[in-house]
Write a structure and sequence with these properties.
The chain is α+β, with helices and mostly antiparallel strands and 457 residues long. It contains 19 helices and 9 strands. The chain has 4 domains: 140 residues, Tetratricopeptide repeat domain (Serine Threonine Protein Phosphatase 5, Tetratricopeptide repeat, Alpha Horseshoe), CATH 1.25.40.10; 87 residues; 50 residues, no CATH class; 117 residues, Alpha Horseshoe (Serine Threonine Protein Phosphatase 5, Tetratricopeptide repeat), CATH 1.25.40.10. The N and C termini lie close together (10 Å).
Length: 457
């Protein structure tokens, strides 16, 4: 009968793994919104003629600014007027992680006759086949969306651009401003997807694109490792800074390139810790991933150093325990997939020890450890029962914990020929069944009921 019980429990054991519900590292707060033109100034300097000038402006976090230089110009005679317009304009500061930040703004100014328009990319000699307006290099729809962005109507700009692109998917200008609208509404994955559809990203928007790719890579790494790595590589190719090093490291860690992940996460760490303005919580977020990488690489000395650093930053933080537990859970999954059940059980138990203050971690770790022990060729039933007891001690009304406890008691009842243990086991399974149904975990409930039918024959 034991073999029947074990076979019936296999599917439930896998179905009960709560990988997605485990505590995870804090989200890396790197959402980026570039500096923007607020009001267009008037020039007191005569306009020389038709041309496009890009002026670099340093916009401070408080909105004050300093005009720096002309970056590019198709008509040098227009440069004085462009510099004067830039000096009399006002700007919205960039946002980094939701906070105003000092950033450069590349201000594109188009002159046609005596008229002035802004925005768009620097004109090129080649055509893309996309309909353009004669004054700005963008279609009328792109100009409309751009004006909505400049007026702070980010949601409206996103809706307008999305609707228009459904009928005109080749309009690169609208596609660009959709990417910026997505970035402005903190939809980093949407922004990355939109930037990815551009034939060329204008130079003045490459920083925004790099940030969108970087944040999307971090957010996607747990579920779409290949796409996360692709976006991280795009970000890294455009801009090398703390954010892109972090994104590359996180994506590499998710895709199994552990040594490369350690290298890039260490660079992100060093950049962050050299900057006193970066909050401790963000440094802890970087340290969590670096700790995970060190642990996965088997570098116990490096892991210990980072764990100590996290404690120094925040003595009450459990980030080190969370990171180490997540690493052990990942190792357990790999071992389970390879049918190395003894290794998997050890990793589950190590996960519980690493984050012993978190109830969900304890239940998930020890319940799965018990269920994994019983899959060994020669299971140690005392070990199975001890792990199940730890899961029950963590949360006595948890369906998975009661399931593991019930099976452990049934296994012991067969070994010791003790009917009282069988009765206790059935009681725990009935409790687990009720809790699984209450949580709408139909898969686990069905498995429990199938086992109860076998036991009661």
């Amino acid at each position: 009968m034991k073999s029947i019980l074990r076979a019936a429990a296999v599917a439930a054991a896998f179905g009960a793994l709560v990988w997605s519900a485990l505590p995870v590292t804090a989200a890396y707060k790197a959402d980026y919104v570039p500096a923007k033109l607020k009001t267009l100034g008037r020039s007191t300097v005569p306009i020389a003629g038709t041309g496009t000038v890009i002026v670099q402006v340093l916009v401070n976090a408080d909105g004050s600014f300093r005009v720096q230089r002309v970056i590019k110009s198709t008509n040098r005679a227009d440069n004085p007027a462009a510099m004067d317009i830039a000096a009399h304009s006002t700007y919205r500061p960039a946002l980094q992680g939701g906070k105003p930040a000092m950033k450069f703004y590349d201000f594109t100014i188009h002159f046609r006759g005596k008229s002035v328009s802004t925005g768009g990319s620097y004109p090129s000699s080649g055509g893309s086949g996309t309909r353009m307006s004669s004054s700005s290099g963008f279609s009328a729809e792109a100009i409309k969306v751009n004006h909505m962005l400049h007026n702070g109507n980010y949601a409206g700009a996103k809706a307008e651009a999305t609707s228009y692109l459904g009928q005109h998917p080749t309009d690169q200008g609208v596609q660009l401003f959709l990417a910026l609208a997505d970035a402005s509404t903190s939809d980093s994955q949407g922004a990355a997807d939109a930037f990815d559809k551009l034939n060329t990203i204008p130079s003045e928007y490459r920083s925004a694109a790099a940030q969108a790719y970087a944040v999307a890579a971090v957010k996607m790494s747990a579920t779409q490792a290949d796409q996360a790595l692709a976006y991280a590589q795009k970000a890294f190719a455009m801009q090398k800074d703390g954010n892109t090093y972090f994104a590359m490291g996180v994506a590499q860690l998710a895709s199994g390139s552990t040594s490369e992940a350690v290298t890039n996460l260490k660079r992100a760490h060093d950049i962050a810790f050299a900057n006193s303005r970066i909050p401790a919580r963000d440094k802890i977020g970087i340290d969590q991933k670096l700790l995970e990488a060190y642990t996965k690489a088997g570098d116990q000395a490096g892991a210990a150093t980072i764990a100590g650093e996290i404690k120094q930053l925040d003595p009450s933080s459990n980030a080190a325990g969370v990171a180490m537990a997540n690493t052990h859970f990942a190792n357990a999954k790999v071992a389970m997939d390879a049918n190395k059940f003894d290794v998997a059980a050890q990793e589950f138990e190590a996960a519980g020890s690493a984050n012993s203050s978190d109830q969900l971690t304890l239940v998930t770790a020890y319940a799965n450890a018990a269920l994994t022990v019983r899959r060994m060729d020669k299971p140690n039933l005392d070990r199975e029962k001890a792990d199940a007891d730890r899961a029950i001690a963590a949360k006595s009304d948890d369906a998975l914990a009661n399931y593991a406890e019930g099976l452990a008691l049934l296994d012991l009842s067969q070994q010791k020929r003790d009917n009282s243990l069988k009765i206790q086991g059935i009681s725990f399974l009935n409790k687990a069944d009720a809790e699984a149904k209450a949580a709408n975990n139909i898969g686990l409930a069905t498995s429990i009921e199938n086992i109860l039918k076998q036991v009661n024959k």
